[in-house]
From TrEMBL:
Keywords: Hydrolase, Protease, Serine protease. Belongs to the peptidase S1C family. One of its GO terms (biological process) is protein quality control for misfolded or incompletely synthesized proteins. The lineage of its organism: Bacteria, Pseudomonadati, Pseudomonadota, Alphaproteobacteria, Hyphomicrobiales. It comes from Bradyrhizobium australiense. This is Serine protease. InterPro entries: PDZ, PDZ_sf, Peptidase_S1_PA, Peptidase_S1_PA_chymotrypsin, Peptidase_S1C. PANTHER family: SERINE PROTEASE FAMILY S1C HTRA-RELATED (PTHR22939), SERINE PROTEASE HTRA2, MITOCHONDRIAL (PTHR22939:SF129). Gene3D superfamilies: 2.30.42.10, Trypsin-like serine proteases (2.40.10.10).
Amino acid sequence: MTDPAATILPSLSSALADMVARTKSAIVSVRSHRSRASGFIWKPGLIVTADEALADEGEVSVKLADGTAGPASIAGRDHTTDIALLRFDTGNTAPAVLSSAVPDLGALSVVVAAEHGAPTAALGVVSLVGSRWRSLRGGEIDARIELDVRLRPNHEGGLSLNASGEAIGMAVRGVRRILVIPSVTIDRVAGRLETHGRIARGYLGVGLQPVELDDGIGAMVMSVDKSGPSAAAGIRQGDVIVGWNDQKLSSVRELIRALGPDSVGSVVDVALRRAGEPLRIKLTIGERAPA
């Protein structure tokens, strides 16, 4: 009787190797000040890498799979979604083809990354799949995808492939877990970085401190930017924000997370308490100045 493993395992091994072979030419090594990471060619002349793995200062260099190496410039970076965009002459190397597919729970995934320009691969399992979520820094991620896989720090920024060989996103190191930034998120954020060099963020122009109230949580205004949106709306130091568009405030972090790119220019109804008395104010969210 033929052992099924004698045919299944070699076939699986060959299929995985073919997947890596089709993708590895688009994978690059990224080096910045005291930091190494991976990345991939998103478009000709443009490379996506993990923002968290990119140093805040100093030069950035890139090494392609064919050995081509040199300095790269930062086209833009978004701390909230962990996406950075680099400009580098990628020659005739074909970009990675991203898929909007969301993997099934328990499906296999191969993370293809690079180390000193040489491709690497790691096999894992999709351990969690969820809906759209916001990062701790307020970035909107289009799907929650977690991997049970070993990912070294310098492999962060590599591509996660599904069992069909489709690139479903970028593998990054989260808090005690490995996350995949979905392809849809990458295309949305990298597209804005390519065009504008940054991601617009909402701005209130106030410094806030959480306070406990008898009936919930509030955000006390500790300082007011005299030229900011809150000052223009009439908000004063000492006011306590208790609601936002008819919703009770649950935390200051929730308020900050609401200040995403789509919030700029929108008018919100802010519920306040001033000297203990209720007050409602219309406020037009501004745009935070580039750092």
